[in-house]
Design a protein that fits this description.
It contains 14 helices and 16 strands. It is α+β, with helices and mostly antiparallel strands and about 450 residues long. Strand 13 and strand 14 form a beta hairpin. Helix 2 crosses helix 9. The structure holds heme C (2 copies).
Length: about 450
């Protein structure tokens, strides 16, 4: 008797084989907290799944605020509540830095950097506490409304830092160095240290906010008691009345506890507008910057009404993590990456819990000299969800806190300190394993 499969035309058999291959390749651990969206440049703009009509409206209103271009105050008569920009600022809209809800472009420098945020910190006499610069404040503002000089022009240049992999391939990392020109308000404090940061992506933030503080505390191991070379310190900001810790979760150093707090800080320092949380209408102008203090402020001491903050916060907590088909993670596990980039965490969901896959522990880790800036060596484990779509959303985006890494491999090769062993593992992998690792990271 002839084999029955011979009767099936070749094309159909091929189609069946392909279908089977696709079914087998489906990730064992599809992420229930993600949403199926088109994987194009708008991939980070969609709201989470399962929202009601009213909630979708709320999200859209928040998105409008996120994309709103704010204007200086004197025109407030005509524009009502959309004024109050600056006088000193970095960008006139949230979306100028968080491009299409993704991250900012890597700093490159034809005529000075605009969207890079440069924090300024001055160590006190005994090298302990860090305080803002007495003249320039917490952050360098590279833009200003008419009549006010921007604080400075910020330049970056890169030098090569070659890394040779065990198979002989050389990867050229680029080491940034920064220079300030045209300081408009006199010298900066001699001891001032600068901390450059680019805007991170906006996806999945409500889920990160929902991770119970106890879970993060349980992941931390500040004294490295388990002796794996990886400590990890929770960013404890304060304590609630019942003694439980309030943790920093947002920003590259986990310095803000909530999306709302981070958004208020952004309005204040990046855009120069005040909120109920931060009722300082002159933004980051210091008393030394006299002209700045004389200007008319917006409609009120609080330039951003509470209602606007509410929708902005709702939006910020409901940007969906796109659903992907996750590739094999064997090389990622083998290299020890999950010690910090924790693949699965339970968060409360209605009466139960759901699993999210953020690939972070939200802890601060010493990442070694290579990534250290003058203000510290610790960084928050970057969440890796959405990583592979970074340059789909913004082709100019870079990786790591200051965007120095042009590729995912470069980002991995910058890992040092507590992550030195993981980095060495990647350097010493056979090429095909390293390719599998990158394929996995690109599939996130
Ligand atoms: C000048 C560029 C710039 C502008 C404008 C800006 N941001 Fe950001 N944003 C950043 C940077 C840089 C960080 C990282 C901050 C840090 O490390 O402390 C950040 C971090 C965030 C985070 C935390 C994300 C995370 O994964 O931790 C949120 C939320 C956020 N911004 C919201 C906003 C909102 C809302 C606005 C508008 C009100 C805004 N940002 C305007 C640059 C910007
Ligand atoms: C000791 C903790 C730790 C280990 C282990 C670790 N990482 Fe990281 N990772 C971090 C931290 C912290 C950052 C943020 C560093 C920065 O921005 O300067 C980061 C950033 C990254 C980034 C860039 C993300 C972005 O949004 O720009 C990638 C990619 C990455 N890690 C991949 C890996 C891989 C792959 C491994 C295993 C080979 C690994 N990491 C091991 C802590 C760790």
């Amino acid at each position: 008797m002839r084999d029955a499969s011979d009767l099936i035309p070749f094309m159909i058999r091929l189609a069946l084989a392909l279908l089977l291959a696709v079914l087998l390749a489906l990730p064992a651990a599809a992420n229930p907290a993600t949403r199926e969206v088109p994987l194009d440049e708008m991939a980070f703009t969609h709201h989470t799944a399962g929202l009601e009509f009213e909630q979708i409206l709320e999200y859209r209103k928040g998105l409008v605020i996120f994309e709103k271009l704010w204007v200086p105050s004197p025109v407030r008569a005509s524009l009502g509540r959309f004024d109050g920009l600056g006088p000193l600022y970095n960008a006139s809209a949230c979306s100028r830095c968080h491009l299409r809800n993704g991250r900012a472009s890597a700093p490159h420098d034809p005529r000075g950097l605009r969207n890079l945020v440069l924090r300024i910190l001055v160590p006190d006499e005994d090298g302990g506490a860090l305080t803002p610069d007495p003249v320039y404040g917490r952050q360098l503002q590279t833009a200003a409304t008419p009549g006010h000089p921007p604080e400075a022009v910020l330049h970056v240049s890169y030098s090569d830092k070659p890394v040779v992999l065990s198979d002989g391939t050389t990867v050229n990392l680029r080491q940034p160095s920064y220079r300030l020109d045209e300081l408009a308000y006199g010298p900066m404090h001699a001891g001032a240290a600068l901390s450059p940061r680019i805007a991170p992506p906006m996806i999945g933030l409500g889920l990160l906010e929902a991770i119970p503080a106890e879970t993060i505390m349980a992941l931390s191991d500040p004294g490295d008691l388990d002796g794996d070379g990886i400590s990890g310190r929770a960013s404890v900001l304060s304590e609630t009345d019942d003694g439980s810790p309030v943790l920093g979760r947002f920003g590259w150093r986990a310095s803000q506890p909530t999306v709302r707090a981070q958004s208020a800080a952004a309005f204040l320092d990046d855009i120069g507008m005040s909120t109920f949380e931060r009722p300082e209408p002159h933004g980051d102008c210091t008393v030394q910057q006299e002209l700045c203090h004389q200007v008319v402020i917006g409609a009120d001491v609080i330039e951003i009404e509470d209602r606007m903050m509410k929708v902005l916060d709702y939006f910020g907590r409901h940007v969906a993590v796109p659903k992907r088909e996750i590739a094999d993670d064997a090389a990622f596990v083998q290299a020890g990456c999950p010690a910090c980039h924790v693949p699965a965490i339970e968060v409360p969901d209605g009466d139960g819990t759901k699993t999210i896959r953020p690939y972070t522990d939200l802890l601060l880790h010493d990442m070694g000299d290579g990534l250290a800036d003058g203000t510290g060596r610790e960084w928050r484990t970057a969440p890796l969800w959405g990583l592979g779509l970074t340059q789909t959303v913004n082709p100019d985006a870079g990786f790591l806190h200051d965007g120095r890494a042009r590729t995912i491999l470069e980002a991995v090769l910058w890992h040092g300190g507590e992550a030195q062993a993981a980095c060495d593992a990647v350097v010493n992998m056979p090429a095909h394993e390293r390719e599998a690792l990158i394929t996995f990271l690109e599939s996130l």
